């Protein structure tokens, strides 16, 4: 039977896009407390299926899929450009597919303006009206207003007409930046992207007997299972080591490891990988905020996803992407790397940033370990000596050397040269994630 929280979520999902939602109305219609309704609505907002819009309220919106995350709602646009809504406020939850800069003749402008787009234009009232008829929202730059007829039309067709004090170029840059930031976020793999949901995974109840473990083991060939209580909350985890030599009539609750490590689906994959490597864990339960089991994630899932993410094309560049792309393997010696210092890598003094310095060393050490078939690294300790400042446009030679390596650890010495002079040195200790 679904919990009250789940019933509210199902109710919200059944509502039409744009439907107004209130705590009191949901509490009354589903016969739950207002506190329960409030928490469920906040959870729905976190999941991206409702949005709270100023002077409109909380409304049902279309859930953003990860593969379509670069789209913005008009409500997000108004926050980005610090603007105000002149009309069509009830349409703020809708998303824009593209934006058009109206710095051209009216006829040419309308050729590019289509349904779902956003026209960025100055005080050209005729363009405002035509854009709305085409199904496009309007963002007026320069702080200008529009005609009352346009505002009424916007209200009727539920498409926003907005105004901002910024100029057209600045507005376009700000929106591009927001889309770009979301592209970077989209590339970050989370537990929710790869975990196995509970309805497709195996688990035990605290009141089960050990015989049930053997039944699941025969069905799945797995040896590790999360254990939940009668409310579905994670209570422990049981492995083959816990059951060897035990009577099959003994309760699972007496055998399980209590208070196991648990993660949420929003946790980043890198963070979970770090925990699993450090603790030597093969299986981690995935739970919601109330510790109810949502599924499981295994060490194999993590390794496969990490290796897959390294093969994916990058769409939005973080500073680490820039550093990685700047590092080139030496043709004469594949254990050494070169990097050109770009302005993006510098600090306020125009010299190589300390953070970039350490990232270059870590990236070079990681590549050497991968080329040596040792596996991917998780840095445990890095000691860096900054011997000399490095100027912009300097051509660095980075020499990592494996001092020691075992099945699960490595020690790497890294030296950085600018010309013939050593400018930095580091010792890196890392845990290895074997392929």
Automatic annotation (TrEMBL):
Residues 256-314 form the CBS domain. Keywords: CBS domain. CDD domains: CBS_pair_DRTGG_assoc, hot_dog. It comes from the Bacteria. Pfam families: 4HBT, CBS, DRTGG. InterPro entries: CBS_dom, CBS_dom_sf, Diverse_CBS-Domain, DRTGG, HotDog_dom_sf, Ser_kin/Pase_Hpr-like_N_sf, Thioestr_dom, WH-like_DNA-bd_sf. SUPFAM superfamilies: CBS-domain pair (SSF54631), HprK N-terminal domain-like (SSF75138), Thioesterase/thiol ester dehydrase-isomerase (SSF54637), Winged helix' DNA-binding domain (SSF46785). This is CBS domain-containing protein. It comes from Lentibacillus halophilus. The lineage of its organism: Bacteria, Bacillati, Bacillota, Bacilli, Bacillales.
């Amino acid at each position: 039977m679904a919990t009250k929280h789940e019933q509210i979520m199902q109710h919200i999902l059944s509502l039409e896009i744009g439907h107004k939602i209130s705590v009191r109305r949901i509490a009354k219609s589903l016969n739950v407390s207002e506190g329960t309704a409030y928490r469920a609505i906040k959870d729905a907002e976190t999941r991206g299926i409702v949005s709270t819009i100023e002077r409109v309220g909380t409304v049902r919106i279309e859930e953003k899929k990860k593969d379509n995350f670069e789209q913005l709602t008009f409500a997000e646009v108004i926050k980005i450009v610090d603007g105000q809504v002149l009309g069509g406020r009830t349409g703020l939850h809708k998303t824009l597919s593209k934006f058009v800069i109206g710095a051209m003749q009216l006829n040419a402008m309308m050729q590019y303006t289509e349904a779902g787009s956003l026209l960025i234009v100055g005080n050209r009232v005729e363009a405002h009206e035509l854009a709305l008829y085409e199904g496009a929202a309007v963002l007026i730059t320069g702080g200008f207003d529009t005609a009352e007829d346009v505002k009424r039309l916007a209200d009727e067709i539920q498409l926003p007409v907005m105004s901002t004090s910024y100029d057209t170029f600045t507005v376009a840059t700000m929106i591009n930046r927001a889309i770009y930031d979301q592209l970077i976020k989209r590339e970050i793999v989370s537990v929710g992207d790869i975990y196995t949901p509970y309805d497709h995974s195996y688990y035990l109840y605290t009141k089960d007997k050990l015989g049930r473990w053997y039944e699941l083991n025969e069905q799945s060939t797995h040896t590790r299972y999360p254990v939940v209580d009668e409310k579905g909350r994670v209570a422990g985890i049981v492995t083959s080591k816990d059951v060897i030599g035990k009577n099959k009539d003994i309760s699972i609750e007496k055998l399980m490891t209590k208070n196991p490590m648990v993660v949420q689906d929003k946790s980043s994959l890198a963070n979970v990988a770090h925990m699993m490597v450090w603790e030597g864990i093969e299986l981690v339960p995935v739970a919601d905020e109330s510790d109810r089991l949502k599924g499981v994630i295994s060490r194999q899932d993590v390794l496969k996803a990490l290796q897959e993410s390294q093969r994916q094309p990058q769409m939005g560049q973080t500073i680490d992407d820039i550093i990685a792309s700047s590092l080139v393997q030496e043709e004469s010696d594949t254990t050494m790397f070169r990097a050109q210092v770009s302005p993006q890598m510098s600090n306020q003094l125009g010299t190589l940033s300390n953070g970039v310095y350490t990232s270059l060393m870590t990236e070079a050490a990681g590549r050497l370990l991968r080329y040596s078939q040792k596996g991917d690294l998780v840095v445990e300790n890095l000691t860096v000596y900054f011997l000399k400042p490095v100027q912009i446009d300097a051509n660095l030679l980075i020499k990592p050397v494996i001092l020691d390596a075992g099945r699960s650890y490595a020690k790497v010495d890294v030296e950085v040269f600018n010309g013939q002079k050593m400018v930095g040195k580091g010792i890196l200790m890392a845990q290895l994630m074997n392929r």
